[in-house]
Design goal:
295 residues; alpha/beta; 8-stranded mixed sheet; 10 helices; 8 strands; globular
């Protein structure tokens, strides 16, 4: 069976592998297709697509957009046009807000007694997209945390003392931005929204009315019950599925690309259904535009 991974990160956000290395690693791991979903960044997509052509791995142009939330709401956008001006402009603004967020995180860590500077974090990142993982790596290097995972669990996760909630986009703005860039939008890692199932269903319907195509039905941290619940919610709400590991390379060494903790397997048919949905939607858009022109 052809296996895929539609949620991965590179050095263009908070992954440890360059886009081209990520694609070659996917090839070595036996994957047929991946999506590069860097946080609020599309700067690595062209490189990943080009490497995919060389290695025979299908690379889906994608992005993971952070949205305003009391917990965590991330919207994945697949098949996006990375040359779309509206998308590029929005990502520039998101980068600015992300920097302000990381400045706030740095201030909070300093107030907790940690000697960490933005210059150290920027040097660790080697990219202009700063993320919490870069703070975590600095904390590990300076002996403030035994691992990246524990730095998150103790200080950087949602609700912890150094977390900042500042975001550039609302959830609806993120969905509309992806659609306007020719992509299809999916709600990522549903468990991180912390919403009980009835409330989560209402949330999904709200986003579907704004243009949401589906949900991340397969994910590394889902329990078997979560997977069943979320896939059932998607079916009840008329949404389709995507799936991925949230691979970050050495930043999350316990998560293997395409396999998660070792038991995740996302079939290629998931990607085929996503393509069918996009083609059907685009055909519908074209038909409505033609009708409008005739009127």
């Amino acid at each position: 069976m052809k296996v895929i991974d539609l949620h991965t990160h590179s050095t263009c956000s908070d992954g440890s592998m360059t886009p081209s290395r990520l694609v070659s690693h996917a090839k070595d791991s036996g994957l047929s297709a991946i999506a590069l979903t860097d946080h609020d960044s599309i700067s690595g997509v062209a490189e990943a697509v080009e490497e995919g052509k060389k290695t025979g791995v299908e690379v889906i142009p994608a992005v993971e957009l952070s949205a305003v939330s009391d917990t965590e709401t991330h919207i994945l956008g697949y098949f996006i046009d990375i040359n779309n001006r509206e998308l590029q402009k929005a990502l520039e603004y998101a980068k600015q807000v992300r920097y302000e967020r990381e400045v706030e995180t740095c201030r909070k860590l300093n107030e907790l007694g940690f000697d960490i500077t933005m210059e150290e974090v920027e040097a660790e990142a080697e990219t202009d997209i700063l993320c919490r993982a870069h703070f975590a790596k600095v904390m590990v290097k300076k002996g403030y945390a035994p691992s990246v995972k524990e730095a998150f669990e103790q200080y950087l996760n949602v609700g912890k003392s150094a977390y900042s909630k500042k975001q550039a986009l609302t959830d609806i703005q993120a969905v509309e931005l992806i659609n306007n860039a020719g992509g299809i939008a999916f709600l990522a890692h549903l468990h991180l929204t912390k919403k009980p199932l009835p409330e989560l269903k209402e949330f999904l319907i709200k986003l579907k009315n704004a243009g949401l195509a589906g949900v991340e039905g397969y994910y590394t941290d889902y329990t078997p019950q979560m997977e069943r619940d979320y896939q059932s919610l998607a079916e009840e709400s008329g949404l389709i599925l995507s799936g991925g590991t949230d691979f970050h390379g050495a930043f999350k060494p316990h998560i293997a690309i395409g396999r998660g903790y070792g038991n995740l397997e996302i079939p290629y048919v998931i990607l085929e259904k996503m393509k069918e949905y996009r083609q059907s939607r685009n055909s519908d858009f074209a038909f409505r535009s033609q009708r409008k022109d005739l009127v």
